[in-house]
Design brief:
The protein is mostly helical. The chain has eleven helices and five strands.
């Protein structure tokens, strides 16, 4: 199989001859690279070769060769040997816990929001004592927190957040609940690129959850930036000012710039393991928050996030738990049921 051959040539320490790679041979690539090879070949056979996504049938010579049982068994073996020999294991972006968004909110005092559009707070250099300007001004701070809360609550991928435009957002008022409501309708999603995407209808959250309320922060950002068309999250000027250009000339914030801002924010709240976090941290954090603290069933998480209803897939479970996430509860507290030292927890807030 071509998938197995390519993975063996570039990613496996064992060659087809049964010998291990020598010192002079190129170093084997990671397991993630092997999965990318298989994904590329699956796409090539499915669309270019017009073989679809049906498993390979050796007798009739039909189906997708990269989805054969032989390739699946080889990849399981390769994954096991990668863990045993090199300690490799999948490392997704660490989830943002419920504490992280609150910390991000209080990075700057709330009084900073009343500053002028160009104003910045002075700070002192640790060594020289000279007054310098911080990297995070009030305009950038509001924009980032609006992005954080929206990605967290709606389980959005970072590219979906960055592509959001003003016409995708609609504010209304629910007379029954007496709360403002924000409706997000995406033009494009990874799992549905042809439209007909179900909207995200989000009411304003209670005051004790204001730090993760996208309705508050999105309305605050749109009021502060005065953006009425084009990209909602734009590339700011050097002075952290929204560019006043034609709507067709506005430039959206790039993924690289978003990751840089996010990591700078983590350092400011004394989280120095910044490379453990990534663009999917808020998406994974939102899934875990709704499951662990709000007691959402898997069915609701799948429906709200827009995942496939095929529960044989491990996609949602990979979002729920990973070895590098923060523990929701300690190991010693699992079986303290009915113990006076461990009162029952609330399914809503986890307290």
């Amino acid at each position: 199989m071509k998938s197995r051959t390519n993975a063996t040539d570039s990613c496996d320490d064992l060659l087809f001859s049964g010998e291990r790679r020598g010192v002079d041979d190129p170093k084997a690539s990671s397991m993630s690279h092997a999965w990318k090879i298989r994904s590329a070949l699956t796409y090539l056979y499915a669309f270019e070769g017009k073989r679809g996504r049906i498993g390979w049938n050796r007798e009739t010579r039909t189906g997708n060769p990269s989805l054969s049982y032989l390739v699946q068994y080889y990849y399981k073996s390769l994954d096991r040997r990668k863990v045993q020999d090199h300690g490799e294991r999948p490392t997704p972006a660490r989830a943002i816990t419920v504490v992280r968004p609150g910390s991000l909110q209080f990075h700057l005092p709330s009084s900073n929001l009343s500053l002028g559009h160009h104003a910045r707070l002075p700070t002192h250099h640790r060594r020289t004592g000279l007054i310098i300007h911080p990297w995070l001004g009030p305009t950038l701070r509001i924009m980032l927190h609006a992005m954080y809360t929206l990605s967290f609550v709606c389980f959005l991928r970072f590219d979906e957040t960055l592509r959001l435009k003003a016409h995708n957002i609609e504010f209304s008022y629910d007379s029954d609940t007496r709360r403002p409501v924000m409706t997000i309708t995406l033009d494009w999603r990874k799992t549905d690129q042809t439209g007909h995407i179900k909207p995200f209808v989000i009411p304003a959250l209670p005051s004790d959850k204001s730090h993760i309320c996208p309705v508050r922060w999105m309305s605050k950002w749109l009021t502060h930036s005065k953006i009425k068309s084009g990209f909602v999250f734009q590339k700011l000027t050097r002075d952290h000012e929204v560019q006043r250009l034609r709507p067709d000339a506005l430039v959206g914030l790039s993924a690289q710039q978003f990751i840089l801002y996010f990591r700078n924010t983590l350092v400011d709240i004394d989280v120095f393991d910044v490379y453990a976090y990534g663009a999917h941290s808020f998406r994974r954090g939102g899934v875990q928050y709704c499951n662990a603290y709000l007691a959402w069933p898997i069915r609701d998480i799948v429906q709200w996030g827009g995942w496939s209803t095929n529960f044989n897939s491990k996609t949602v479970h990979l979002y729920l738990i990973s070895w590098n996430d923060d523990e929701v509860k300690s190991r010693k507290s699992f079986w303290l049921l009915g113990n006076s030292d461990s009162p029952p927890t609330c399914s809503h807030c986890g307290r």
